[in-house]
Amino acid sequence: MIITISPAGRGRFRSYLGTRLLCTSPTPFLSSARVLLREGVDPSTPLEMTREGSDAVDLRSTVGVAARFTVSENDHEGPVFRAYKAFPADLRSKPQELSPCA
């Protein structure tokens, strides 16, 4: 399964599976994996990410492994993979639907 990303501005990227928009996110590979997992894609399915206009694979994992991570960054360290923790449902505000990212 190959997703393709393109810039959306302000540090965010659109992620497509073929012509279908999966999400818009600052972490499109990881967010797309969570979307696909929620849709029932087998966690062992290989997942690759390319940039629009390029055939080079930038990231490779399985849907299940990629869905377990997010990226955090602060003033003391660069980008670091961390365990993804879903925001508690009871604290979520009503979504303004832009895209179905996790």
Q: Would you give an account of this structure?
A:
- By secondary structure, the chain is an alpha+beta fold.
- The protein has one domain.
- It has 2 helices and 7 strands; from the N terminus they run βββαββαββ.
- The protein has helices at 28-38, 63-67, and strands at 2-9, 12-17, 20-25, 46-51, 57-62, 69-72, 80-83.
- The strands form 2 sheets. It has a 5-stranded mixed β-sheet with strand order 3-2-1-4-5. It has a two-stranded antiparallel sheet with strand order 6-7.
- β2 and β3 (20-25) form a beta hairpin.
- The longest helix is centred in the N-terminal third of the chain and has 11 residues, at 28-38.
- The radius of gyration is 14 Å and the shape is globular.
Average pLDDT for all residues: 90
* Major sheet details: 5 strands, mixed
Classify the beta-strand content into a percent band.
Answer: 35-45%
The tally of helices reads 2
Q: What's the total count of β strands? A: 7
Which strand order do you get reading across the main beta sheet?
3-2-1-4-5
Shape, principal axes of CA atoms: globular
- Quaternary organization: single chain
Main structural class: alpha+beta
Helix content: 10-25%
Amino-to-carboxy terminus distance: 18 Å
